[in-house]
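DM from R.C. (forwarded with permission)

"hey, sorry to bug you on a friday — could you get me a structure for this? deadline for the figure draft is monday and I only need the backbone to look sensible"
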Amino acid sequence: MAQSARGGPPGGGPRVREIPEGDNRLRLVCPDCGFINYENPKIVVGAVVTWQDKFLLCRRAINPRKGHWTIPAGFLELHESVMDGARREAVEEARVTLGALCKVAEYYPSPGALSEYLYSYVALCDLPDGSAGVFGVADEAEDIKGHLVPFDALMALVASGEIANAPLILSALWLQRERATLRARGSD
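My reply, with the result:
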């Protein structure tokens, strides 16, 4: 993309409010270059989805961090509730409609270094047979491979260090502690 002398997009940058193709919200768009200014709070939401003692994990199929394990997660939109954001991200990234949400934690990854604030959930729901596969929003360049992983395999991935994603590690450890309670509630 070409840039102006001041380093931004040519022609004054995003200045037209419209709904970009593939989106459902008004955004500021640059009519000259197509740049979209995504305004959102620096709040990230995500959920580990569980069903019959299996967990829907995602593996990034593109860079950055291609091959890394993750959960359906992303930034909140403006004026969106935390739970609505978690539900939206699950549909966008894994084509899953979440049931009950159990809050794991809310936290700063590092209060002195990062301004993002995270909400982690475990979501109880029925997963259809097609829950494993490649998902993501095409316009957001999200190729995400969904995998149904048994609990013991999830914990082995954490123990081996193959899962290097703090929200997923935190949620897995929470699941380890709360698994019996979730089973008693009928999530399995």
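R.C.: lifesaver. The helical segments are 82-94, 151-160, 166-184.
me: no worries. The radius of gyration is 18 Å.
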